[in-house]
Amino acid sequence: MAEIVRMPKLSDTMTEGVVAAWHKKVGDKVKSGEVLAEIETDKATMEFESFTDGVLLHIGVEKGETAAVDSVLAVLGKEGEDITALLASAATAAPKAEISKEAPAPREQVQEAAKPKEQVQAQEAIAPAGHSERSEGTAPVAKATPAPAPTNGRVKASPLAKNLAEEKGIDIGRVHGTGPDGRITKQDIENFTGGGAQYSVPQVEKFEEVAVSQMRKTIAKRLSESLFTAPHFYLTIEMDMTRAMSVREAINKRIEPEKVSYNDLVIKAVAHALKQHPKVNSSWLGDRIRFNEHVHIGVAVAVEEGLLVPVVRFANGKSLRTIGTEVRDLAKKAKEKKLQPADWEGNTFTISNLGMFGIEEFTAIINPPDACIMAIGGIMEKPLVKNGAVVPGHTMKVTLSCDHRAVDGATGAAFLNTFKQFMEEPALLLGEGAI
After folding, report:
1. CA torsion sign, 157 to 162 to 164 to 165?
2. How far is CA 244 from the centre of its chain?
3. 404 carries an active-site annotation
4. How far apart are CA 307 and CA 169, in angstroms?
Protein backbone atom coordinates (compact mmCIF):
# COMPACT_ATOMS: atom_id res chain seq x y z
CA MET A 1 0.00 0.00 0.00
CA ALA A 2 1.28 3.46 -0.94
CA GLU A 3 2.63 5.62 1.86
CA ILE A 4 3.01 9.40 2.05
CA VAL A 5 6.43 10.79 2.97
CA ARG A 6 6.03 14.19 4.59
CA MET A 7 8.38 17.16 4.91
CA PRO A 8 10.32 16.34 8.11
CA LYS A 9 10.92 18.69 11.03
CA LEU A 10 14.72 18.55 11.14
CA SER A 11 15.30 21.19 13.84
CA ASP A 12 13.45 22.61 16.80
CA THR A 13 12.85 25.90 14.98
CA MET A 14 12.03 24.55 11.52
CA THR A 15 8.60 25.46 10.13
CA GLU A 16 9.32 24.92 6.44
CA GLY A 17 12.07 23.48 4.29
CA VAL A 18 13.54 23.80 0.81
CA VAL A 19 14.33 20.74 -1.31
CA ALA A 20 17.97 21.30 -2.25
CA ALA A 21 18.27 18.09 -4.30
CA TRP A 22 16.51 14.81 -5.10
CA HIS A 23 18.61 11.64 -5.09
CA LYS A 24 15.82 9.59 -6.68
CA LYS A 25 13.39 10.23 -9.53
CA VAL A 26 9.84 9.00 -10.08
CA GLY A 27 9.94 5.30 -10.92
CA ASP A 28 13.15 4.56 -9.03
CA LYS A 29 13.25 1.84 -6.38
CA VAL A 30 14.02 3.09 -2.87
CA LYS A 31 15.34 1.05 0.03
CA SER A 32 14.95 1.91 3.69
CA GLY A 33 17.98 3.92 4.81
CA GLU A 34 18.78 5.27 1.35
CA VAL A 35 19.10 9.04 0.96
CA LEU A 36 15.92 10.25 -0.72
CA ALA A 37 16.55 14.00 -0.82
CA GLU A 38 18.56 16.87 0.66
CA ILE A 39 16.50 19.35 2.71
CA GLU A 40 17.65 22.89 3.47
CA THR A 41 16.51 23.97 6.92
CA ASP A 42 16.98 27.27 8.71
CA LYS A 43 20.39 26.09 9.94
CA ALA A 44 21.86 23.52 7.57
CA THR A 45 21.33 21.34 4.51
CA MET A 46 20.68 17.79 5.70
CA GLU A 47 20.26 14.41 4.01
CA PHE A 48 16.81 12.87 4.43
CA GLU A 49 16.69 9.08 4.43
CA SER A 50 13.74 6.90 3.48
CA PHE A 51 12.13 4.97 6.31
CA THR A 52 10.57 2.33 4.07
CA ASP A 53 11.10 0.29 0.90
CA GLY A 54 9.17 0.96 -2.27
CA VAL A 55 9.02 2.72 -5.61
CA LEU A 56 9.01 6.54 -5.79
CA LEU A 57 5.54 7.14 -7.29
CA HIS A 58 5.20 10.89 -6.78
CA ILE A 59 7.32 13.94 -5.93
CA GLY A 60 5.30 16.60 -4.13
CA VAL A 61 7.99 19.27 -3.76
CA GLU A 62 10.30 19.87 -6.69
CA LYS A 63 13.95 20.89 -6.34
CA GLY A 64 14.20 24.52 -5.25
CA GLU A 65 10.65 24.66 -3.91
CA THR A 66 9.66 25.51 -0.34
CA ALA A 67 7.07 23.58 1.66
CA ALA A 68 5.75 23.62 5.21
CA VAL A 69 6.64 20.89 7.69
CA ASP A 70 4.27 17.88 7.24
CA SER A 71 3.50 18.80 3.62
CA VAL A 72 3.49 15.91 1.12
CA LEU A 73 7.13 15.49 0.12
CA ALA A 74 6.74 12.26 -1.85
CA VAL A 75 4.76 9.02 -2.15
CA LEU A 76 6.30 5.55 -1.97
CA GLY A 77 4.43 2.37 -2.92
CA LYS A 78 4.26 -0.51 -5.34
CA GLU A 79 5.04 0.00 -9.00
CA GLY A 80 1.93 1.03 -10.96
CA GLU A 81 -0.17 1.60 -7.82
CA ASP A 82 -3.00 4.17 -8.17
CA ILE A 83 -2.38 7.02 -5.69
CA THR A 84 -5.03 9.48 -6.91
CA ALA A 85 -7.31 8.99 -3.91
CA LEU A 86 -4.36 9.15 -1.50
CA LEU A 87 -3.17 12.50 -2.89
CA ALA A 88 -6.71 13.91 -2.87
CA SER A 89 -7.11 12.93 0.76
CA ALA A 90 -3.74 14.44 1.65
CA ALA A 91 -4.60 17.69 -0.14
CA THR A 92 -7.62 18.29 2.08
CA ALA A 93 -5.47 17.95 5.19
CA ALA A 94 -2.43 19.81 3.85
CA PRO A 95 -0.71 22.40 6.07
CA LYS A 96 -1.93 25.96 5.60
CA ALA A 97 1.40 27.16 4.20
CA GLU A 98 1.35 26.56 0.46
CA ILE A 99 4.28 25.22 -1.48
CA SER A 100 6.00 28.08 -3.19
CA LYS A 101 8.89 28.25 -5.59
CA GLU A 102 12.01 29.94 -4.38
CA ALA A 103 12.36 33.48 -5.61
CA PRO A 104 14.47 33.76 -8.75
CA ALA A 105 18.17 34.36 -8.49
CA PRO A 106 19.15 37.86 -7.40
CA ARG A 107 18.32 40.30 -10.14
CA GLU A 108 19.25 43.86 -10.75
CA GLN A 109 16.49 46.29 -11.55
CA VAL A 110 17.17 49.61 -13.20
CA GLN A 111 14.87 52.58 -13.46
CA GLU A 112 15.94 55.43 -15.70
CA ALA A 113 14.87 58.92 -14.84
CA ALA A 114 12.81 60.59 -17.52
CA LYS A 115 14.71 63.12 -19.61
CA PRO A 116 13.66 65.69 -22.20
CA LYS A 117 14.23 64.62 -25.78
CA GLU A 118 16.96 67.22 -26.29
CA GLN A 119 18.78 66.05 -23.14
CA VAL A 120 18.66 62.40 -24.16
CA GLN A 121 20.14 63.27 -27.55
CA ALA A 122 22.92 65.23 -25.88
CA GLN A 123 23.80 62.43 -23.44
CA GLU A 124 25.89 60.38 -25.89
CA ALA A 125 29.26 59.08 -24.73
CA ILE A 126 32.16 61.27 -25.91
CA ALA A 127 35.70 59.87 -26.16
CA PRO A 128 38.66 62.08 -25.26
CA ALA A 129 40.11 64.02 -28.19
CA GLY A 130 42.37 61.88 -30.34
CA HIS A 131 40.96 58.54 -29.04
CA SER A 132 38.32 56.13 -30.21
CA GLU A 133 37.44 53.17 -27.97
CA ARG A 134 35.53 49.99 -28.75
CA SER A 135 34.14 47.54 -26.19
CA GLU A 136 33.73 43.91 -27.21
CA GLY A 137 30.29 43.34 -28.67
CA THR A 138 29.36 47.03 -28.79
CA ALA A 139 29.46 49.77 -31.37
CA PRO A 140 32.43 52.14 -31.27
CA VAL A 141 32.07 55.16 -29.01
CA ALA A 142 31.60 58.25 -31.12
CA LYS A 143 34.15 61.03 -30.87
CA ALA A 144 32.58 64.46 -30.77
CA THR A 145 33.53 68.00 -30.04
CA PRO A 146 31.24 70.12 -27.89
CA ALA A 147 29.71 73.15 -29.46
CA PRO A 148 31.70 76.25 -28.65
CA ALA A 149 30.34 78.46 -25.91
CA PRO A 150 28.51 81.57 -27.13
CA THR A 151 30.89 84.42 -27.96
CA ASN A 152 28.43 87.27 -28.18
CA GLY A 153 29.12 88.21 -24.57
CA ARG A 154 26.02 86.52 -23.20
CA VAL A 155 25.99 83.00 -21.73
CA LYS A 156 22.69 81.16 -21.97
CA ALA A 157 22.20 79.55 -18.57
CA SER A 158 19.44 79.14 -16.01
CA PRO A 159 19.76 81.24 -12.83
CA LEU A 160 20.15 78.02 -10.81
CA ALA A 161 23.00 76.88 -13.08
CA LYS A 162 24.76 80.25 -12.74
CA ASN A 163 24.53 80.17 -8.93
CA LEU A 164 25.76 76.56 -8.78
CA ALA A 165 28.68 77.35 -11.11
CA GLU A 166 29.66 80.27 -8.89
CA GLU A 167 29.50 78.06 -5.76
CA LYS A 168 31.68 75.42 -7.40
CA GLY A 169 34.12 77.94 -8.85
CA ILE A 170 33.42 76.78 -12.41
CA ASP A 171 33.96 79.06 -15.41
CA ILE A 172 30.48 78.78 -16.89
CA GLY A 173 31.82 79.84 -20.29
CA ARG A 174 33.63 76.48 -20.56
CA VAL A 175 30.49 74.43 -19.93
CA HIS A 176 28.64 72.85 -22.85
CA GLY A 177 24.88 73.38 -22.52
CA THR A 178 22.48 70.54 -23.30
CA GLY A 179 19.26 72.53 -22.91
CA PRO A 180 17.23 74.15 -25.72
CA ASP A 181 19.44 76.28 -27.98
CA GLY A 182 22.50 75.24 -25.96
CA ARG A 183 21.17 76.63 -22.69
CA ILE A 184 23.26 75.52 -19.69
CA THR A 185 21.26 73.68 -17.03
CA LYS A 186 21.92 72.71 -13.39
CA GLN A 187 22.66 69.17 -14.53
CA ASP A 188 25.33 70.43 -16.96
CA ILE A 189 27.13 72.13 -14.06
CA GLU A 190 26.87 69.02 -11.86
CA ASN A 191 28.24 66.83 -14.69
CA PHE A 192 31.06 69.22 -15.65
CA THR A 193 34.45 67.49 -15.32
CA GLY A 194 36.62 70.55 -15.74
CA GLY A 195 38.11 69.51 -19.09
CA GLY A 196 37.46 70.84 -22.56
CA ALA A 197 34.67 68.31 -23.08
CA GLN A 198 31.65 67.66 -20.92
CA TYR A 199 30.61 64.11 -20.16
CA SER A 200 26.99 63.33 -19.37
CA VAL A 201 26.52 60.67 -16.68
CA PRO A 202 23.42 58.50 -17.21
CA GLN A 203 20.90 59.16 -14.44
CA VAL A 204 19.81 55.73 -13.23
CA GLU A 205 18.43 54.29 -10.03
CA LYS A 206 19.59 50.78 -9.21
CA PHE A 207 18.68 48.25 -6.57
CA GLU A 208 18.98 44.54 -5.95
CA GLU A 209 16.43 42.22 -4.36
CA VAL A 210 17.53 38.91 -2.87
CA ALA A 211 15.19 36.15 -1.73
CA VAL A 212 15.11 35.67 2.06
CA SER A 213 16.76 32.35 2.97
CA GLN A 214 15.31 29.87 5.45
CA MET A 215 18.10 30.78 7.88
CA ARG A 216 17.40 34.52 7.67
CA LYS A 217 13.65 33.95 8.12
CA THR A 218 14.26 31.99 11.32
CA ILE A 219 16.80 34.50 12.65
CA ALA A 220 14.30 37.32 12.10
CA LYS A 221 11.47 35.39 13.76
CA ARG A 222 13.40 34.18 16.81
CA LEU A 223 15.18 37.45 17.56
CA SER A 224 11.98 39.46 17.14
CA GLU A 225 10.21 37.12 19.56
CA SER A 226 13.13 37.37 22.01
CA LEU A 227 13.44 41.16 21.93
CA PHE A 228 9.72 41.88 22.14
CA THR A 229 8.86 39.09 24.60
CA ALA A 230 11.77 39.03 27.06
CA PRO A 231 12.28 42.29 29.00
CA HIS A 232 15.96 42.99 28.30
CA PHE A 233 18.27 45.03 30.49
CA TYR A 234 21.98 45.60 29.97
CA LEU A 235 25.04 45.71 32.22
CA THR A 236 28.46 46.85 30.95
CA ILE A 237 31.80 46.39 32.69
CA GLU A 238 35.37 47.27 31.66
CA MET A 239 38.39 45.21 32.63
CA ASP A 240 42.18 45.51 32.51
CA MET A 241 43.52 42.98 29.99
CA THR A 242 47.24 43.45 30.73
CA ARG A 243 47.62 40.14 32.62
CA ALA A 244 45.43 38.23 30.17
CA MET A 245 47.60 39.39 27.27
CA SER A 246 50.86 38.35 28.95
CA VAL A 247 49.45 34.98 30.10
CA ARG A 248 48.12 34.21 26.61
CA GLU A 249 51.49 35.08 25.09
CA ALA A 250 53.26 32.78 27.56
CA ILE A 251 50.83 29.91 26.88
CA ASN A 252 51.21 30.23 23.12
CA LYS A 253 54.99 29.97 23.41
CA ARG A 254 54.51 26.56 25.03
CA ILE A 255 51.92 25.00 22.74
CA GLU A 256 52.47 24.56 19.03
CA PRO A 257 50.99 24.77 16.48
CA GLU A 258 47.55 25.51 18.00
CA LYS A 259 47.20 28.91 19.59
CA VAL A 260 44.92 29.98 22.43
CA SER A 261 42.74 32.93 21.43
CA TYR A 262 41.22 35.61 23.63
CA ASN A 263 37.85 34.08 22.79
CA ASP A 264 39.01 30.78 24.33
CA LEU A 265 39.97 32.62 27.53
CA VAL A 266 36.56 34.33 27.57
CA ILE A 267 34.70 31.01 27.20
CA LYS A 268 36.76 29.43 29.98
CA ALA A 269 36.23 32.42 32.32
CA VAL A 270 32.49 32.56 31.56
CA ALA A 271 32.12 28.83 32.24
CA HIS A 272 33.78 29.10 35.66
CA ALA A 273 31.81 32.24 36.56
CA LEU A 274 28.54 30.49 35.66
CA LYS A 275 29.32 27.67 38.08
CA GLN A 276 29.54 30.28 40.84
CA HIS A 277 26.38 32.08 39.69
CA PRO A 278 23.84 29.41 38.60
CA LYS A 279 20.99 31.95 38.51
CA VAL A 280 22.61 33.44 35.40
CA ASN A 281 22.91 29.97 33.86
CA SER A 282 19.13 29.71 33.64
CA SER A 283 16.08 29.66 31.36
CA TRP A 284 12.63 31.27 31.70
CA LEU A 285 9.99 28.58 31.03
CA GLY A 286 6.80 30.57 31.66
CA ASP A 287 5.55 29.03 34.90
CA ARG A 288 9.01 28.06 36.20
CA ILE A 289 12.71 28.92 35.94
CA ARG A 290 15.25 26.24 35.11
CA PHE A 291 18.64 26.62 36.83
CA ASN A 292 21.14 24.55 34.87
CA GLU A 293 23.93 22.81 36.75
CA HIS A 294 25.74 21.92 33.52
CA VAL A 295 27.40 24.66 31.43
CA HIS A 296 26.79 24.53 27.67
CA ILE A 297 28.03 27.74 26.04
CA GLY A 298 26.70 28.82 22.65
CA VAL A 299 29.23 30.71 20.52
CA ALA A 300 27.75 32.97 17.84
CA VAL A 301 29.36 32.35 14.43
CA ALA A 302 28.83 34.67 11.47
CA VAL A 303 28.07 32.86 8.20
CA GLU A 304 27.20 34.19 4.77
CA GLU A 305 23.43 34.05 5.30
CA GLY A 306 23.31 35.16 8.93
CA LEU A 307 24.27 33.76 12.31
CA LEU A 308 24.56 30.27 13.78
CA VAL A 309 25.21 29.35 17.43
CA PRO A 310 27.05 26.02 17.84
CA VAL A 311 27.49 24.84 21.43
CA VAL A 312 30.58 23.98 23.48
CA ARG A 313 29.26 21.42 25.96
CA PHE A 314 30.46 21.15 29.58
CA ALA A 315 32.81 24.03 28.88
CA ASN A 316 33.84 24.43 32.54
CA GLY A 317 35.55 21.02 32.47
CA LYS A 318 37.52 21.52 29.25
CA SER A 319 41.02 22.86 28.73
CA LEU A 320 41.77 26.00 26.74
CA ARG A 321 43.18 23.99 23.86
CA THR A 322 40.14 21.69 23.76
CA ILE A 323 37.80 24.69 23.76
CA GLY A 324 39.80 26.34 20.97
CA THR A 325 39.82 23.19 18.84
CA GLU A 326 36.07 22.65 19.28
CA VAL A 327 35.20 26.26 18.44
CA ARG A 328 37.32 26.19 15.27
CA ASP A 329 35.80 22.86 14.16
CA LEU A 330 32.23 24.04 14.86
CA ALA A 331 32.82 27.35 13.07
CA LYS A 332 34.13 25.48 10.02
CA LYS A 333 31.11 23.16 9.99
CA ALA A 334 28.77 26.13 10.38
CA LYS A 335 30.24 27.93 7.37
CA GLU A 336 30.05 24.73 5.31
CA LYS A 337 26.43 24.11 6.41
CA LYS A 338 27.38 20.79 7.97
CA LEU A 339 26.17 21.38 11.54
CA GLN A 340 23.87 18.71 12.95
CA PRO A 341 21.13 19.29 15.56
CA ALA A 342 23.42 18.00 18.33
CA ASP A 343 25.87 20.80 17.46
CA TRP A 344 23.44 23.68 18.03
CA GLU A 345 20.97 22.46 20.66
CA GLY A 346 21.12 22.69 24.45
CA ASN A 347 22.91 26.01 25.08
CA THR A 348 22.52 27.47 28.59
CA PHE A 349 24.42 30.73 27.95
CA THR A 350 25.61 32.49 24.78
CA ILE A 351 28.66 34.57 23.86
CA SER A 352 28.84 36.97 20.89
CA ASN A 353 32.29 38.37 20.13
CA LEU A 354 32.80 41.26 17.69
CA GLY A 355 36.11 42.38 19.16
CA MET A 356 38.06 41.06 16.17
CA PHE A 357 36.15 43.55 13.98
CA GLY A 358 37.30 46.55 16.01
CA ILE A 359 33.99 47.00 17.85
CA GLU A 360 34.60 48.53 21.29
CA GLU A 361 31.22 47.62 22.80
CA PHE A 362 27.71 46.59 21.74
CA THR A 363 24.55 44.95 23.04
CA ALA A 364 23.24 41.56 21.88
CA ILE A 365 19.72 40.12 21.78
CA ILE A 366 19.17 37.13 24.09
CA ASN A 367 19.33 33.74 22.37
CA PRO A 368 16.39 31.62 23.68
CA PRO A 369 16.13 29.60 25.82
CA ASP A 370 19.06 31.31 27.60
CA ALA A 371 18.36 34.01 30.18
CA CYS A 372 21.55 35.92 29.27
CA ILE A 373 23.96 36.65 26.44
CA MET A 374 27.34 38.35 26.73
CA ALA A 375 28.60 40.77 24.05
CA ILE A 376 32.43 40.91 23.90
CA GLY A 377 34.13 44.06 22.60
CA GLY A 378 37.67 44.50 21.35
CA ILE A 379 40.81 45.09 23.42
CA MET A 380 41.59 48.80 23.26
CA GLU A 381 44.81 50.59 24.17
CA LYS A 382 44.22 53.52 26.51
CA PRO A 383 45.78 55.32 29.50
CA LEU A 384 45.07 53.74 32.89
CA VAL A 385 45.51 55.07 36.40
CA LYS A 386 47.56 52.66 38.55
CA ASN A 387 48.95 53.52 41.97
CA GLY A 388 48.20 57.19 41.38
CA ALA A 389 50.09 57.32 38.07
CA VAL A 390 48.81 57.35 34.50
CA VAL A 391 50.28 54.43 32.53
CA PRO A 392 49.55 52.89 29.13
CA GLY A 393 47.29 49.86 29.26
CA HIS A 394 44.72 47.69 27.46
CA THR A 395 41.08 47.27 28.44
CA MET A 396 38.08 45.29 27.20
CA LYS A 397 34.39 46.06 27.64
CA VAL A 398 31.68 43.42 27.84
CA THR A 399 27.92 43.90 28.03
CA LEU A 400 25.59 41.34 29.60
CA SER A 401 22.02 41.28 28.23
CA CYS A 402 19.64 39.79 30.81
CA ASP A 403 16.05 38.56 30.75
CA HIS A 404 14.61 40.43 33.72
CA ARG A 405 12.02 37.70 34.25
CA ALA A 406 14.77 35.31 35.36
CA VAL A 407 17.77 37.46 36.29
CA ASP A 408 17.88 40.61 38.43
CA GLY A 409 20.38 43.45 38.19
CA ALA A 410 22.35 42.53 41.30
CA THR A 411 22.64 38.91 40.13
CA GLY A 412 23.95 39.95 36.73
CA ALA A 413 26.37 42.44 38.29
CA ALA A 414 27.81 39.81 40.66
CA PHE A 415 28.37 37.43 37.75
CA LEU A 416 30.15 40.15 35.72
CA ASN A 417 32.48 40.99 38.59
CA THR A 418 33.43 37.32 38.99
CA PHE A 419 34.07 37.10 35.25
CA LYS A 420 36.21 40.25 35.49
CA GLN A 421 38.31 38.70 38.28
CA PHE A 422 39.04 35.65 36.12
CA MET A 423 39.98 37.78 33.09
CA GLU A 424 42.21 40.17 35.05
CA GLU A 425 43.96 37.29 36.82
CA PRO A 426 43.86 34.26 34.45
CA ALA A 427 46.01 32.24 36.84
CA LEU A 428 42.77 31.59 38.74
CA LEU A 429 41.61 29.56 35.72
CA LEU A 430 44.81 27.68 35.05
CA GLY A 431 44.80 24.73 37.39
CA GLU A 432 46.15 21.31 36.46
CA GLY A 433 45.04 20.31 32.95
CA ALA A 434 43.49 23.72 32.29
CA ILE A 435 45.74 24.49 29.32
Report:
1. positive
2. 30
3. yes
4. 50
